[in-house]
Amino acid sequence: MPPLESLLLADTVVALTVGGVFWLAGATGLADLCWALGTVVAVGPAVGWVLGALRRGQAGVDLIAVLALGGTLAVGEYLAGSLIALMLATGRALEASARQRASRDLRALLEHAPRTARRRTGTDVRTVPLTEVAVGDLLVVGPGEVVPVDGSVADDPAELDESVLTGEPLAVRHAPGESVRSGAVNAGGAFELRATATAQDSTYAGIVRLARQASAESAPVVRLADRYAAWFLPLTVAVAGLTWLISGSAVRAVAVLVVATPCPLLLAAPVAVVSGLSRASRLGVVIRDGGALENLGRARTLLLDKTGTLTGGHPRVLDVIAAHGWQPSQVLRLAASLDQYSPHVLARALVDAARERGLRLSMPTDVSEEPGRGARGTIAGRRMGVGGLDAGTEKPAWARSADNRAVLDGATVVWLTVDSRPVGAVLLRDPLRHDAPRTLRRLRSAGIERLVMLTGDRAEPAHEVGAVLGLDDVRASLSPADKVTAVRAEREGAVTVMVGDGVNDAPALAAADVGVAMGSRGSTASSEAADIVLTTDRVDRLADAVAIAVRSRRIAVQSALGGMALSLIAMAAAALGLLPPAVGALLQEGIDVAVILNALRALGDDRGARPALQPSTQALIHRFAAEHDDLQDVLEAVRSAADQLSDSPGPQALAAVRNVHRLLTERLLPHEYAEEHQLYPALAPTLGGPEATATMSRAHVEIDRLAHRIATHLTLVGPDGSLAPEQLDDLRACLYGLHTVLRLHFTQEEENYFSLAP
């Protein structure tokens, strides 16, 4: 809390308390002296605040308090003045506590920016200040280093992590001659860069300038109290003036000012706002001041980045495709074994997926890694590779099908080769967050009318995410400057919130009315530029923040309007001479207590915002969520068996179907049975009854039906071990249908049920 507010609060408390002690002891003269001193002490700061507001063209709520303080001193109503001084000091102290902000000097942006570059002249490589780099210089960028200036790749290909610029988590390969932008991180081997711009004219410097400009353009927040004072102030002055004019009594006019002192505005609104800030912080939402909370409660447009905000921000295994004679789990295990020591983002995704499924990794030998091509090594005496395929490698039909699936799913393909022959493919994609759909539904319920995605990612995956989430608009392939332009355009129509997690989002966050940063894994720069930081890696905390802001603002408005209505009644009584100033001040204290107690409701939970789960139910959710990860290989086996039936419906394909039947019987169906009889009954009370899970129960019935149908087909296999032609189409349809139902069912459970648990 700033020193002035804290000192004023301490002085007014002491003056009122000591004066009360003297009054009880019968020393009324000393009591009046203490109360008068407390009033005088408050007049100076209050006049300063009023003058500051008037210089900004505002006649704020503090003007009524100044008039009341002066009036009580003029007519000798010192107790009333001391009470008003205490209320003024308390309101200012509460508001100052809510207004504490973190620095917005964008330190992280500046820290990330390189200050030197390695310039090559002939065979000599020297480190020079970045300001000395000129267009045409040949620079060397080592592994893990930041590209210092905009330029073009000179000789060897470059693999760059451009998430700082675009938010896209997958590394991008740039061939010689292609342009690259400053701020990207070298995710591969060293390469040479031909500078095409100076540091001042490069992309990253532009991001810093944009963030500074957008932050400087942010309009100051108008306090909720001041907005209501715009009509309450002239009304109060008019009533007090008319009272003096008609009655001829200055005491009556002062009594009107005393009971009109807008303590509901000075106290109730800040209390509700501070209570909302406290409530949000308990959920991992750091809101930097009361103005941000008020604006969030009025927001009608919400703009979201894609990568790291609506998606997880890092690639995960979507599917594993195996060649004939290979199993998907075998492909994933070998690929992860080769990649377990690689720092590449795709390698980490493979290893994480293998470990989630309980696969035991082998120890490769003779391992080597080539940027852009992947890792090579020997496992069990066979030479294997994981990554890209060599140029000219002939792809069998299943591999071409994998390529097609990658295009359709917007996924990246990592190939596993054995003795230079592809035997499997792993599809990876940055998946949608499980809690994203529920979050957006809750945001619309909270009053957000327009949801828009702003992303630097490609149009195809962006529009797919937008369609799944039901967004109102999707704008893809945006630069940081484009995002700022979009934010400014949206601000013209409504209070606008921008949500992001990367350095590239920092300018847009600063340009919005309210900037929200995914601070758990997002960049420090985005957190520095934001008004609100989500400290947990859950986007549903955004819906919590909006719900808290809306509720806190509603309670603040209720308290302010209710208190002012009571004050208006008291003003009428004071104007008629029924309330002397001291009694009016005490009555105003009673009104204050009522509105403050109402404002403190913002500390409590909004029961309708988030279902409350019992600890035992949360444990069940975590258990079944872990089983979903473990069952991914079963889904892959179902799809692989269907593919084999399509390619060559022989004994090998039939063996794959029998393996699927075993996996269904031993692992999948027991899981579904346990969900039906343990998880769903536990969720029913929270979700409003068994009808809430009825649709999902119907999916269990369909899964069981298809599994039983597959088992029946196996019993109808002929004596020669082959399927009748009329069986093939139905069995294949059962397998593909089961795979589709399982994918949809798993996704629905993860979005609707598993996302409820913290």
From TrEMBL:
P-type ATPase A domain segment(s): 112-211
Keywords: ATP-binding, Cell membrane, Copper, Copper transport, Ion transport, Membrane, Metal-binding, Nucleotide-binding, Translocase, Transmembrane, Transmembrane helix, Transport
Transmembrane portions of the chain: 6-26, 33-51, 63-89, 228-247, 253-274, 560-579
GO biological process: copper ion transport
Superkingdom, natural source: Bacteria
GO cellular component terms given for this protein: plasma membrane
Residues covered by region (Disordered): 364-386
GO molecular function, one term: ATPase-coupled monoatomic cation transmembrane transporter activity
Main location: membrane
Protein name (database record): Heavy metal translocating P-type ATPase
Originating organism: Streptomyces cyaneochromogenes
